[in-house]
Amino acid sequence: xxxxxxxxxxxxxxxxxxxxxxxxxxxxxxxxxxxxxxxxxxxxxxxxxxxxxxxxxxxxxxxxxxxxxxxxxxxxxxxxxxxxxxxxxxxxxxxxxxxxxxxxxxxxxxxxxxxxxxxxxxxxxxxxxxxxxxxxxxxxxxxxxxxxxxxxxxxxxxxxxxxxxxxxxxxxxxxxxxxxxxxxxxxxxxxxxxxxxxxxxxxxxxxxxxxxxxxxxxxxxxxxxxxxxxxxxxxxxxxxxxxxxxxxxxxxxxxxxxxxxxxxxxxxxxxxxxxxxxxxxxxxxxxxxxxxxxxxxxxxxxxxxxxxxxxxxxxxxxxxxxxxxxxxxxxxxxxxxxxxxxxxxxxxxxxxxxxxxxxxxxxxxxxxx
Length: 369
Prior knowledge:
369 residues
């Protein structure tokens, strides 16, 4: 018992270190132990029951997965003394509520078929039979780093007939009637097999320091503006605030509706995650879009000239998709947004300098009505 408590504490500590990575269109292999127990049956269960399982889980998307499961379970009871041994398999549909969090609860339901044998029964004869069961599931995934999870799960299972516990009686499962039911308590691990299928869904988390306020690097913004101005200038933050208020409280001007170059929404070389200083710029863009629901936006991603044209085009699309997901998460209707990737074909500044390449790794909004 002490070892189990220690293991859970280690998992909880590890899960607070980083956000969970999400894998889509990928397979995960799982295994673990289960403790089965009669819950709606006509016998008195004992504590000494046990079992194990193997799973193969396919992730359709960030939230939904299909799990194929094979398992063995031995349930014991007293008064009368009966042992029910199960060997079965089936499929469950799983839904994860917050897949990017290190602690992610989920629910599921499914169907299993199994063969069961009754042994050491004092009130009925020994027998073997085939049946099926319906499952209601709830659990939590605990992130252990990229490609690995610790899983805890509780299942409620209604069996298709009343002889599951060896005794005919009035108690039944969640479907009603006289069918027997049991619960299972599981702990185990899940390891993904193809880590190259990491989803970009959680990229916006990576740019925000966890559990601390976001720190905007105003000195970096000022440096970028100065380096790309005709004359060095001092940033008037009062003026910036005045502009933001004007766009928030009024309809967008004709100039706004043409093309936005979002100064400050730039990316590190080869990456598509948002930097901290990009968030206040995007929050302002969200305010304008929410105040003007007729505006349609083409989110245009750009890169510097390092790399092949095709890889740069793909990277520019991924950067545009990152901004699109952020806007959607703040309430902008997805039907108003499209994404275009231009790669390195439309530089703002000279790619022969570091400053120029930094500015060219950018996002622009093409706005229409």
